[in-house]
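CORE FACILITY INTAKE
Project code: CF-77B
Contact: R.S. (postdoc)
Sample description: multi-component assembly, two entities in total
Requested service: structural model of the whole complex
Turnaround: standard
Below are the sequence entries exactly as provided by the requester. Do not edit them.
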Amino acid sequence: MSTTTTTTGTTTAPVPTGALNASRTAATAARVLRQLRHDPRTIAMMILIPCVMLFLLRYVFDGSPRTFDNIGASLLGIFPLITMFLVTSIATLRERTSGTLERLLAMPLGKGDLIAGYALAFGTLAIIQSALATALAVWFLGLDVTGSPWLLLLVALLDALLGTALGLFVSAFAASEFQAVQFMPAVIFPQLLLCGLFTPRDNMHPALETISDVLPMSYAVDGMNEVLKHTDMTANFVRDILIVAGCALLVLGLGAATLRRRTA
Amino acid sequence: MMNYSPDPPADPPASLTPAVRAEGVTVVRGPRTVLRGLDFTVPRGQITGLLGPSGCGKSTLMRSIVGTQAKVTGTLAVLGSPAGHPTLRTRIGYVTQAPSVYNDLTVRQNLDYFTAILAPALSASDRRHEIDRVLTDVDLTSHADALAGNLSGGQRSRVSLAVALLGTPELLVLDEPTVGLDPVLRRDLWTLFHSIAADRGATLLISSHVMDEAERCHRLLLMRKGEILADDTPDALRTRTGAETVEAAFLHLVDEAATAAHEKETTR
């Protein structure tokens, strides 16, 4: 960046470390999962809390199963986003503050390897979390899904990736764990209020509806509801998952830009 | 010391280029100028001690050499390439002051991950040998399966050192590697540093604010307030200043610099 370090010494061709390296990415993903394995309580909470919430919700709306269908399906998309956001933002913040990030970036690790490694590890967890929550909702709590539960799982996975991407990005702006946790109400709550979970988006004030049009969680929830109501993949559904995936990639790219090999 | 014409006809042999060559290296951090136009060279195959009080810029200089410091101006060549060049990433081992390892992984898992990053092509058995070798080097074989977070501070900093020893780097940059260690362990580590320099021909740049460690280095860079006060062998420093120890020599040089600055002030 603003470095003007020059030299009269030899210059050799740079070793390609920018492109993705499969084994470094896999090693990073394995390392992240190993770290989590030493923390079984976190794993248990990540996997059980969405199930417990769905269970609760089912009996909160005991008298109106239609409401449970709507809210339950939306939540199946929201849980992975929130969990992965929290886990990733804290994990990357730790990596930044413990000096391991500086060490890794002084080594031949590409930024893409690191980010893809995190996405792979947390994506795996998200699949387990979503599979359990979806199975519980569909088969035991009577969530009435018209479309294929596999599509629900696909949306959930993309939401998890979006959460990972957002968490990675905001961790660059947090100097402490306290700040990182505060990003959750700052980044997630507005989306939660505007995504159509509480009231359909077209019932909102036009200004809010416009804002909700540019927030990715709106499409995550909309995608879930498309699966809920239609037997096949609708054009809206395809649009929704493309937007969520596109947002995830965009934010991952922004997150990569916050990883600096040289820091002040 | 070793100066080359700006456009050498061929690259000088690796054994002749100094490990580090700095000309006018300056680093500004926020409002503060941390390093003020440093000129020095670090010769290959030797242990160079970087000594000076806390806050004098030792860590910033080390980060500049490793290539993690932003806003470095001047010329800084490391192993013949500009500092921070991608090819240097496998050739330099770097240990930060605070141990940078994953506390929620075992010692072996830490080393396993960093080996996978440094040498992804290494076979599983070669990787294990490599890890066993560095564990023996830092005397942590018996703690290989302990969580890094459960180790003592001194043990954790040795894990951090072990990571830097992976892959036999040509240049080891160690920021206060012996701080907080007991005398026996410190002696053992210095024996290790000397054998790394002698047997592998590696260059070591080791910072410390404990002056008695200076006697164990081949060369010394004495720093104060972002400037290099002296660049010499311990013997030459003591002879030049007529002091008994490097510590006394350092104090002598500080006083000398202060007097010189004062005279400059009054004659103006």
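Facility notes:
- Chain A touches chain B through 43 residues (CB under 8 Å).
- The two ends of chain A are 11 Å apart (CA to CA).
Invoice: internal transfer
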